[in-house]
Amino acid sequence: MVHLWLVTLPKSDISEEELIGNIRHGISNTSVGALGRLLPFEMPEFSVGSLDILMGLSDDLKKIDVSIEVIFKLIFYLITLSMLIFILVN
User: Fold this and answer.
1) Is the Cβ–Cβ distance between 60 and 74 less than 8 Å?
2) Three-state SS annotation for the chain
3) Measuring CA to CA, which of 11, 20, 22, 88 is 20 to 30 A from 28?
4) What's the predicted TM-score (pTM) here?
5) Mean pLDDT of 22-39
6) Which pLDDT score is estimated for 69?
């Protein structure tokens, strides 16, 4: 079984390299240090309001998904109905 940990840390006065070195040193003597390795992950800078916009778009996408599903079910129903009418007439 694979375990992945994502840890976020607040900005501090020390450099990123020094912070990563401190964390590596801190976990090297534990069972966690023997099981894996620490890899930094660069987070992109988001402008103020980006998360709000993404959440709004996510909500809109859910609504649009339901609408499109209803439309396709209606189209399928109409095609099936027209095929049945065509079979019955002929």
Assistant:
1) no
2) CCCCCCCCCCCCCCCHHHHHHHHHHHHHCCHHHHHCCCCCCCCCCCCCCHHHHHHHHHHHHHHHHHHHHHHHHHHHHHHHHHHHHHHHHC
3) 11
4) 0.40
5) 71
6) 93
Task: Determine the residue type at 38.
Answer: L
Q: Which amino acid is present at 44?
A: P
Query: How many Å apart are CA 77 and CA 73, to the nearest integer?
Result: 6
Report the b/e string of 58-77 with b at 16+ CB within 10 A: eeeeeeeeeeeeeeeeeeee
